[in-house]
Design a protein that fits this description.
single chain; mainly alpha; 2 strands
């Protein structure tokens, strides 16, 4: 007897492609052209970094507890809509608590660029610890939310230490203010570097793109150590190298690196290595890197055309952004954060069920 089909439409990569097209079009229409560019640049983009931190904790470290799998109680007999709605409410509340705490308790910053610079640090650590390190050594030994809680404390403590001990605000409107700790790393340089590091550990991790290659025999956490070192070396080479070549900093990290992050996610999870599944191990890993690079080039060209009018409005308003900042906004603040919970929380409702992340096609 065949298994009952859950959801409508095609299964597998075609369903992921439909999902990607719909969420991309709706996301750009609503969140780029449906609101003011000033709100996008000055408020929404900085605030969404905390939204991403909350999403990473719930999906990666909290295992989507209590409503969605693998940590939640969802079964095929239960409603995907209810599971998705419940997890989305938790995500919204978690994000709101973070925003309120940072605005009114500590460090009491107004919503703006400071949230962006600090948020990238917390986002980097959340993804690195949640994906490459898989919550080691707590995950699987503690309740999902206990793992999430312990991880949150560790991630925030390191983020605050990095912010207070290593960053400076030279060249920003906050230079020489009480918020400027005058550390050795400028926040603009550090932001670009960390986005490039995220790009490379999205390529080299157990779940996306290379699916653990070439560290598969290193065990855990040995593989995580290797992936972390390699990603941060490559991040430095590509970030400092692009600057040395005279490339626009925003094009380097906001357009190129963010697109690598985005397509490593989309091609590996949502499109399930479409077109190369007959290959395995190193051959698939190398082909996946090539495909992701090609997709990035095409995607950047498309977005620069689609986002052109919004970029012109930003220039006219003399806001501190450009078309490349809009690209990272679309990749990591709109479409990416729509695709992830639609798979993880909503189980791709009303389309067919997605494969769990990291599943070998």
């Amino acid at each position: 007897m065949e298994d009952r089909k859950i959801g409508f439409g095609p299964a597998g990569p075609p369903a992921g492609f439909i999902q990607f097209i719909v969420l991309s079009v709706v996301g750009i229409l609503v969140f780029v052209y449906g609101i003011s560019v000033e709100l996008i640049v000055m408020k929404i983009t900085p605030a969404t970094l905390l939204m991403l931190v909350a999403l990473g904790h719930l999906a990666l470290l909290g295992d989507n507890f209590p409503f969605a799998p693998p940590g939640g109680k969802w079964t095929p007999e239960k409603s995907r809509f209810s599971a998705g709605l419940g997890m989305t409410v938790i995500w919204a509340v978690f994000t709101l608590i973070l925003l309120i705490f940072m605005r009114y308790v500590y460090p009491r910053w107004p919503v703006g660029p400071l949230y962006l610079w600090f948020g990238v640090i917390a986002f980097w650590l959340t993804l690195l610890y949640g994906i490459n390190w898989n919550g080691w050594p707590f995950k699987g030994r503690l309740h999902p939310w206990a793992t999430m809680g312990v991880s949150f404390i560790i991630i925030m403590a390191i983020s605050i230490a990095v912010w207070n001990g290593l960053t400076n605000l030279a060249g920003t409107p906050f230079a020489d203010s009480p918020m400027d700790h005058k550390g050795p790393l400028n926040v603009n340089w550090l932001t670009g570097y960390l986005v490039w590091c995220i790009a490379w550990f999205f390529v080299f991790n157990p779940v996306f793109t290379t699916q653990g290659w070439p560290f598969g025999k290193w065990g855990h956490p040995g593989a995580a150590v290797g992936q972390t070192i390699l990603a941060h070396i490559l991040g430095y080479i590509f970030w400092s190298g692009s600057l040395a070549l005279g490339m626009s900093p925003t094009f380097s990290f906001a357009a190129v690196a963010s697109s690598i992050i985005f397509w490593s996610l989309v091609y590996s999870w949502h499109l399930q290595f479409w077109g190369i599944t007959k290959y395995t191990h190193s051959r698939r890993a190398i082909l996946a890197i090539v495909v992701v690079c090609i997709l990035c080039v095409v995607w950047i060209i498309i977005l620069r055309a689609v986002l052109g009018p919004a970029a012109e409005a930003i220039a006219a308003a003399k806001l501190p952004a450009d078309v490349n900042i809009l690209i990272i906004y679309v990749n990591l603040c709109i479409v990416g954060p729509a695709l992830i919970p639609h798979n993880a929380f909503w189980l791709r409702w009303p389309l067919t069920l997605p494969a769990p992340p990291g599943t070998t096609p």
